[in-house]
Amino acid sequence: MRLLFLGDIIGRSGREAIIRNLADWREKLSLDLVVANGENASHGYGLSPDIAKNLHSAGVDVITLGNHAWDRRDMLGYINQAPHIVRPANYPVGTPGQGTHIVEISRGRRALVINVMGRIFMDPLDDPFRVVSEILSKHRLGVTVHAILIDVHAEATSEKMGFGAYFDGRASVVVGTHTHVPTADHRILPAGTAYQTDAGMCGDYDSVIGMGKPAALHKLVRKTPGDRPQPAEGEATVCGLMVETDDATGLARKVAPLRIGGHLAPNWPDF
Amino acid sequence: MRLLFLGDIIGRSGREAIIRNLADWREKLSLDLVVANGENASHGYGLSPDIAKNLHSAGVDVITLGNHAWDRRDMLGYINQAPHIVRPANYPVGTPGQGTHIVEISRGRRALVINVMGRIFMDPLDDPFRVVSEILSKHRLGVTVHAILIDVHAEATSEKMGFGAYFDGRASVVVGTHTHVPTADHRILPAGTAYQTDAGMCGDYDSVIGMGKPAALHKLVRKTPGDRPQPAEGEATVCGLMVETDDATGLARKVAPLRIGGHLAPNWPDF
Amino acid sequence: MRLLFLGDIIGRSGREAIIRNLADWREKLSLDLVVANGENASHGYGLSPDIAKNLHSAGVDVITLGNHAWDRRDMLGYINQAPHIVRPANYPVGTPGQGTHIVEISRGRRALVINVMGRIFMDPLDDPFRVVSEILSKHRLGVTVHAILIDVHAEATSEKMGFGAYFDGRASVVVGTHTHVPTADHRILPAGTAYQTDAGMCGDYDSVIGMGKPAALHKLVRKTPGDRPQPAEGEATVCGLMVETDDATGLARKVAPLRIGGHLAPNWPDF
Amino acid sequence: MRLLFLGDIIGRSGREAIIRNLADWREKLSLDLVVANGENASHGYGLSPDIAKNLHSAGVDVITLGNHAWDRRDMLGYINQAPHIVRPANYPVGTPGQGTHIVEISRGRRALVINVMGRIFMDPLDDPFRVVSEILSKHRLGVTVHAILIDVHAEATSEKMGFGAYFDGRASVVVGTHTHVPTADHRILPAGTAYQTDAGMCGDYDSVIGMGKPAALHKLVRKTPGDRPQPAEGEATVCGLMVETDDATGLARKVAPLRIGGHLAPNWPDF
Ligand SMILES: [Fe+2]
Ligand SMILES: [Fe+2]
Ligand SMILES: [Fe+2]
Ligand SMILES: [Fe+2]
Ligand SMILES: [Fe+2]
Ligand SMILES: [Fe+2]
Ligand SMILES: [Fe+2]
Ligand SMILES: [Fe+2]
Predict the structure, then answer these.
(1) Which ipTM did the prediction report?
(2) Rounded to whole angstroms, how far apart are CA atoms D248 and D271?
(3) Which residues of D touch B92 (CB under 8 A)?
(4) How far apart are CA C115 and CA B260, in angstroms?
């Protein structure tokens, strides 16, 4: 199976770069599944139902979220009607939406997508290690589902690398989001899980993690409130991770970053 | 001028990969200056005088530090005798050592190295924006010094990208350390400063940020104290950033990551 | 039922003040149950088996813990043999010890003691609201147990006041620990639960939260490592909260702080 | 000199209790100076110019602030016209307003009021120990000013007790704010400074640190956004600290908490 995961989409710049190109990339890369983190898709703050629909139409099969999941309050009501939008699984019991979604792929194959949030330097949700262990205990990789992708939305590299190490061999892909900067550590872990600490954002990198520089710097340097940061509007770099898995085992065979457009060094997966 | 910056050196694995190869790399890459972050060089915790000497002999001109600067208490006494060891400049007045060092390069050129620590999710030191502004106000890039490299040791990507944006055009290189994962966002910022959010560690990536997996996972998952994490002992990936600057302006002309050995995708600067 | 809760015992000064006086106080105050937080009883860091035995012999029926629970590693092995030592209930499943203990009081009465840790500004354990709700769902206050005391070991006043409000009417006492400073907000909440945001420490207040001033100030002001802080050795103020409950309802009838000795204004419960 | 410091005023309930009573208390207690923390006076979020004027008219000589200083943006413009409104002194250079104010008292006496913010678990401002040391170096207690009151707006009890210990003998009063809960540790420190870790709020304690319980609990328990917390509207407890100083030395002679109204045990200073 061939999967593409795209990191946090930041406002219009990020959305349009994806909407413009994804159909073409799906074909060129023979993709079976596209997952994207949409927590900043609506002007940097949350995900609106309309934007979710547009991304879905453009070829994003599953949208994951994070600490900005509910910045758009309408998502609290909408998410239960949109099972392909997945919020962190470790919100308390009773939170709207689900933390997992199973996608039916061609030829009877099924892929499980999980979204979970880290706790270090973040609002403390339930234990992500326990919650994901419980989810995985209900599935057999390569048997009940043919691929498992986990978007671990977290700040600390220790928590993300620890998450990869802990679930190595039990998921096809563990990929981080939230820091808005792609890491150069994509690899297949010893037991077969594709891993990258952060997918990076789909947004304008001539910015401070996607937001316009003056307002972001005001906050960092002046410490008094200034204008609310708005997404930078320059050309986005679409950043993601492509993985090819073995349907029989569900483990990764190949992994490569995708980086296209904007200000970062480009990389096109060559498999 | 051609500079190589190497990220946090983690214990024996990281040290030996550098000591074994650096003379060769200095020649092949025609390097004028090598700077490395040594805060984890002594078994993961701090920097001992002996290890500092070994790294210096191997061709590391300047060693920067971070929040682990003083894990080896003898560094508090030694640092004043070793001006090429630079601790974060924003420690309180009266802290042993200096936050800057000027290296004399061939043909009368001089390079200024600055180490500074971020404050978001870290122990609050003095304002890094103010402290570095004050340091830079005493120098003219391309005139009094021909290159300025800043190692910003910080957790949050927002603070590091903000730091790059704020000092863009006033330094040759702004490069991050501390997260132990290399980022894939190396580039030259609009006003001419080479930038990468994190250089990554020089250590074994089959680990949790350089430390052995069982002890690190115990801490993350079990929350009770376990064995003290020790550096992983597999082959290190040496991770760094190479920059070529213009001596007349002090700004960056070329930038590329260096990644060699171990478990990450290799990259050799091709200039 | 008449209960006395004593806040974090800090080293020798705090222990001795309790051991010297508790038998007398038990009698004068007609106490049915004494609970004390012992996370700093062993020289400020953790609780040793021997010190636990001494406190128990002196009349402390139940000892609660907190983030320092395991500073003394031998507690990891000992706690399972000592059911009257209670560690935070929201450690992950599989942690040694228990988060609750039921004490048999005279005339067939039973008191349930719960220890739980907050998460704001602390290492993220499981959700304290959920964990305590689950514990309480197995008991009926005034029927299966005649009193329920919860020691909520937490940093943020918002989390502690929120905890009191959330469990008001479902426990006899919600009392905070961890900040080492007694609060002056003891009261009976609208639905009948006695509450105080922090019981304060049993230790020498001529200190920085119980530790000697020079080492503590070095850490705050100098930011370089200095001597390991040691408990201050002056006379302790024993700080706690006394509550009288109604055995039929399990709710609080009277509440008053106890503060004796040392540098704080004294208060002796007058009921 | 006789000073009264009142803790964080929370919305209408807190304001009205002060406005209704302060003239009477000034007389009964023979107060020379009244200082109050106003960072939550405007509906819980910041301080508006109009409310500042009302408090001033009611007898509050100086208003201090904290992390909510700028919730009302108009304060950024107004504060420079209102020198008796003091914001934390350790904001970066260039921040509107001042961190100190000197009040002329009867018979040629002068009192210096300082506001400063802690950094532990808070947005990192400049070093409060250094900033206040610099301010104090320009004054001689008992000579150039007859009293010095420092409102240290901070979260951690360690930082506040450390602050008291560090400036003991150099100020008349060090009193904490920000946690909205009064502490019971008022005392005169060994070198003569009156101290209390937190003055507590002037607001309705049947709440979560002054805000209505349902919205505050939603945030703590549910983790999804709910209604914006609003100040609780029940009767306020006015909480503060009264100090009598010696004009010749500037040091404290007597100290007592003031707590009146609402749900807390009352205390009226008896000197
Ligand atoms: Fe994001
Ligand atoms: Fe995020
Ligand atoms: Fe490091
Ligand atoms: Fe570090
Ligand atoms: Fe404690
Ligand atoms: Fe504690
Ligand atoms: Fe505050
Ligand atoms: Fe406040």
Answers:
(1) 0.97
(2) 19
(3) 127, 130
(4) 50
Contacts of C124 in chain A (CB under 8 A): 119-120, 124, 127
Q: Which of C68, C178, C180, C186 is catalytic?
A: C68
Helix residue spans in C143-192 (DSSP H)? 157-167
Residues of B in Cβ contact (< 8 Å) with A206: 189-190
What pLDDT sits at residue B50? Answer: 98
Distances (CA, A) of A11 to A60, A180, A220, B160, D182: 16, 13, 21, 21, 45
Q: Please tell me the pTM assigned to this model.
A: 0.97
What would the DSSP string read from start to end of A128-171?
HHHHHHHHHTT--BTTTBSEEEEEEE-S-HHHHHHHHHHHBTTB
Catalytic residue among A43, A68, A180, A218: A68
The span from the CA of D113 to the CA of B189, in Å, is 45
Q: Give the span between the Cα atoms of B223 and B219, in whole angstroms.
A: 5
The shortest CB-CB distance from D157 to any of C184, C186, C209 is to: C209
Nearest chain D Cα distance for residue A98, angstroms: 14
Beta bridge partner(s), residue D115: D151
Q: How confident is the model at residue A169 (pLDDT cuts 50, 70, 90)?
A: very high
Q: Which of D8, D132, D185, D271 best probes binding to C when mutated, by most C CB atoms within 10 angstroms?
A: D185
Q: In chain A, pLDDT over 70 holds for what percent of residues?
A: 100
Task: Give the β-pairing of C187-188 and C238-245.
Answer: unpaired
Nearest to D230 by CA among D2, D12, D5, D4: D12
What is the C-alpha end-to-end distance of chain B, expressed in Å?
A: 12
How far apart are the CA of A156 and the centre of ligand 4, in A?
Answer: 12
CA distance A70 to chain D (A): 7
Catalytic choice (D68, D139, D146, D178): D68
Cβ neighbours of C197 in D, within 8 Å: 181
Distance, in Å, from the CA atom of B232 to the CA atom of B241, rounded to the nearest integer, reads 23
Q: Mind spelling out the 3-state secondary structure of B22-83?
A: HHHHHHHCCCCEEEEECCCCCCCCCCCHHHHHHHHHCCCCEEECCCCCCCCCHHHHHHHHCC
| Reduced 3-state DSSP string for D173-224 | EEEEECCCCCECCCEECCCCCEEECCCCCEECCCCECCECHHHHHHHHHHCC
3-state secondary structure of D18: helix
Q: What is the pLDDT of residues B45-71, one digit of tens each?
A: 999 999 999 999 999 999 999 999 999
Owner of token pair 């050129």 = B109
* Residue A145 backbone dihedrals phi, psi, to 5 degrees: -135, 150
Strand B33-37 and strand B62-64: the pairing is parallel
The answer for residues whose C-beta is within 8 angstroms of residue A8's C-beta and 6 or more apart is A14, A37, A38, A39, A40, A66, A177, A178, A180, A199, A201, A202, A203, A210
Give the neighbours of chain B: at least 3 Cβ pairs within 8 Å: A, C, D
| Chains linked to A by 3 or more Cβ pairs within 8 Å | B, C, D
Angle at A192 between CA A187 and CA A198, to 5 degrees: 35
Q: Per the CB < 8 Å rule, is B155 touching A155?
A: yes
| Strand pairing report for A173-177 and A194-196 | parallel
Nearest ligand to the C-alpha atom of residue A9: 1
What separation in Å is there between the alpha carbon of A178 and the centre of ligand 2?
Answer: 4
CA of D251 to the centre of ligand 8 (A): 27
**Token pair listed for B164:** 């790059």
What are the pLDDT digits (tens) for A32-76? 999 999 999 999 999 999 999 999 999 999 999 999 999 999 999
Measured in Å, residue B68 CA sits from the centre of ligand 4 at 6
Nearest Cα to D159, choosing from C13, A3, C179, B240?
C179
Closest in C197, C209, C267 to D181, CB measured: C197
Q: Does B68 participate in catalysis according to the annotation?
A: yes
Q: How far apart are CA B165 and CA C123, in angstroms?
A: 33
